[in-house]
Amino acid sequence: MKAVYLESVQKLTEKELPVPRPGDRQVLVKMKAVGICGSDIHYWHKGRIGPFVVEQPMILGHECAGEVVEAGKDVANLAVGDRVVIEPGVPCYTCEYCKSGKYNLCPDIRFFATPPVDGSMVEYVAFDADLVFRIPEEIKDFGLATMVEPMAVGVFATRTVKPALGDNAVVFGAGVIGIVCMLAAKAAGCAAVTVADIRDDRLERAKELGADNVVNLKTDTLSDSCYDIGYEATGAEACYALASKCIKPGGKLSLVGMGPELQSLPIVDFVCREIALLPSFRYANAYPAALKLLKAHHEKLEKIITHRFAFSLESVDEAIRTAYSDPTAGKVVVDFQ
Fold it and tell me: Is 21 within the bounds of a domain?
């Protein structure tokens, strides 16, 4: 089978690998689609994200969907022919974080395309059946099904910030993660969600997908003390400063975006206004809810996919470069035959 590796910064190579055999509790999944994530772009562009450094060739990709072609003898929840998505992190199951349900914090988790673990930009993957989920019948497109992974990020962030029924929310960033946070906030009972960004095209897309209000931060301002909760989905230092003013005293801010390792934050404002900063890292136990939300909004979310490429070394390289440099790019998907 073919696999596309990140050989070094901004250099991809293709290798031939043996098709893996599934273990007793695993399934073999033939890849049908893989989405390009911001983390893939970071690794390709700079070779690292915070403490995660690419030190050897690594297969990229973790937003993935495919078809089960073989099942281990102890697998009861899936069968050959099932259309599935993969939750891309295998925890140890035994540490204190796993046992408390916070397996996203497991120090030994093996997460696709996080150094040194290979990802899913490969024709076949053997994976733990417990972390493989059937795609709802309503979702016909494998490329759209890959959106469950970022949707899980939005679901988990929303569970972390715990909006109350009728809350007003603000989302900083109208990229894919900002959009899924907006959808999750509305599903959790927020009465109105405002999405803020600096690009009109992204804000127009957010409005089409259900944002109640949109604000271009280059030309408009957010009112002070207007929002009960917020999502920071950009990693931009300026957004923390805005959040410290526009979120009500006693409100909450979910930290989802990945920006520079060191930033200056208005800590005194957050303290004096008792705005809780709630980091949200990946997700845990979020895929079932994310699939339901994806099913509910699948027709809208098709608009997020702006570019598609066939699986090959050249096309994967073009897909990543497009996601990195094309300002019109939303979700970029690589399709397998």
Answer: yes
